[in-house]
Amino acid sequence: MAPAPQQEQFITMAAQAIHPPSIILILVDDMGYGDVGCYRNGNNAANLAPTPNIDRLAAEGIRFTSYYSGAPICSPSRVALTTGMAAGLWNITSYLDNRKHNRTCEQANFLTASAPSVARTLRSAGYATAHFGKWHMGGGRDVMDAPGITEYGFDEYASTYESPDPDPLLTSTNWIWAKSDSIKRWNRTAYFVDKTLDFLKRHPGQPAYINLWPDDVHTPWVADESTLNEFPKGTEKPREFTAVLAELDKQVGRLMAGLKSLGTDQNTLVIFTSDNGALPTFGSRSGPYRGSKLSLYEGGIRMPFLVRYLAKTPKGQIDTRSILCATDLFPTFMSLAGQPITRPTYGENAAAAFEGKPFFRKTALFWEYGRNNESFRYPQGRDRSPNLAMRQGKWKLLVNDNGSGTELYDLSQDPLETDNVAEQQTRMTKQMQTNLLAWRAALPPLPTQPAESTSK
After folding, report:
1. Which of 15, 230, 299, 314 reaches 20 to 30 Å from 378, CA-CA?
2. Would the pLDDT of 324 be above 90?
3. For the whole model, what pTM was predicted?
4. Cα–Cα–Cα angle for 93, 110, 363, nearest 5°?
5. What stretches of 89-154 adopt beta strand conformation (E)?
6. In the chain, where does the domain assigned CATH 3.30.1120.10 lie?
7. Where are the alpha helices (DSSP H) in 287-339?
8. Rounded distance, CA 199 to CA 222, Å?
9. Helix, strand, coil share (%) of the chain residues, nearest 5
10. What is the 8-class DSSP label of residue 372?
11. Are 35 and 302 in contact (CB under 8 A)?
12. What value does the mean pLDDT take over residues 302-323?
């Protein structure tokens, strides 16, 4: 017998109550810890645009102060997010470029499609999946054999030049932008927000997982038509950065207004973060921290991280105790989707932290950046770090893979990494260095590439 109308209404409401959340992962390109207004203080706010819409995510959710990217540079950080594993396990160690560059960096040309993928796993759990924005995990330039974006579990996509499937509206030429692009450089984030909202509108009643990965605020900056005319290849001047940051903030506001208009904002988990640190770092774009993009000091890997999930997240909370990493997102998303975590991952399930309960991780965090001096020459000076790092509780160790240049910092007392206590804390230094070098030694070497791949 069919249920009565009142019963049907009750069943529908009950189903909505247990509906797993949609997830929108906003991954900004090269955004430093201090670029977001709510992470600044009076000493590091100079020359930076206000970010009221991004700050509203913090006011309506949780602001985490100790979240780490998977790497201090683009491609491996995105691989860590996608797979829940260290990017070195998939032979991605630096930004992906042409084949010659990739060989020099001792890395693969793309993330293999057989790697784990958070989108593929969530799709198998009933999610609609989409990728809108920068990809940079293979494809473009002279790498023509990279897997398509759908092979990683995405139903739809629109991407930029650095991908196997660039959107022709964004890439009228074989470069990152051009005057002839139908969607101009400064309108690109708006385009991706439109795509996101349209995708959600076309999947009512179905949870969605969306990568919203704008390529703001990566240099060079093209803020408007006059900037393009004056600087055809873009610029790295603070004025243009301010304009680009303001536009990004505006589009975050449009996204949130769109979610509310669709009636999906209560049960949509929105995460806002960055792939790696800022460069250049004028105006204290790294916040108070030492380092920048390309560095394993805090400024290169400690990122803004905001979580807004109105159905479960307390408002206006600041979490200073949880230590999170990009590799945690895969198992956390599975937990929030009500799915079992059936495979080993580098990350830990931090779902409790997304609901306002501090998360105390059980495992250490590891990073690498720099397989050889020819490929990894920057940054120079004080921000140039050793090429390996590890965080274990309050301790952070940095060392080169040959055992030289050991540095140990107590981040609870010295978050700015100014006082190297390796010689005073010899036992802790030895233990962490042994574990870190063993972790690095266990990463697979790059397989020999076919002659036709290495001759290009």
Report:
1. 230
2. yes
3. 0.94
4. 45
5. 128-133
6. 386-452
7. 298-301, 329-336
8. 27
9. 35, 15, 50
10. -
11. no
12. 97
Measure the CA–CA gap between 99 and 452, rounded to whole angstroms: 11
pLDDT digits (tens, 9 = 90+) for 342-394: 766 689 999 999 999 989 999 999 999 999 888 888 888 999 999 999 999 99
What is the distance between the alpha carbons of residues 392 and 361, in angstroms, rounded to a whole number?
9
pLDDT, residue 45, reads 55
Which H or E element spans position 317?
strand 317-319
- What's the rounded mean pLDDT across residues 220-232? 94
Q: What is the largest CA-CA distance in the chain?
A: 77
| Residue 363 CA neighbour count, 13 Å, CB half | 14
281, 289 Cβ separation under 8 angstroms: no
3 state DSSP class of 450: coil
Catalogue the long-range contacts made by 251-255 (C-beta closer than 8 Å, 24 or more residues apart). Answer: 251/189, 251/190, 251/192, 251/193, 251/214, 252/26, 252/53, 252/54, 252/57, 253/52, 253/53, 253/56, 254/190, 254/193, 255/24, 255/26, 255/193, 255/196, 255/197, 255/212
User: Which residue type sits at 267?
Assistant: N
Query: pLDDT tens digits for 400-434?
Result: 999 999 999 999 999 999 999 999 999 999 999 99
Instruction: Check pLDDT > 90 for residue 7.
Output: no
- Please state, as a whole number, how many other Cβ atoms lie within 10 Å of the Cβ of residue 293: 29
Query: Is the pLDDT confidence value at 454 over 90?
Result: no
CATH topology for 386-452? Arylsulfatase, C-terminal domain (3.30.1120)
Nearest-5° Cα angle at 437, 436 to 438: 90
Q: Are 309 and 62 in contact (CB under 8 A)?
A: no
- Which part of the chain is CATH 3.40.720.10? 21-363
The yes or no reply on domain 21-363 and CATH 3.40.720.10 is: yes
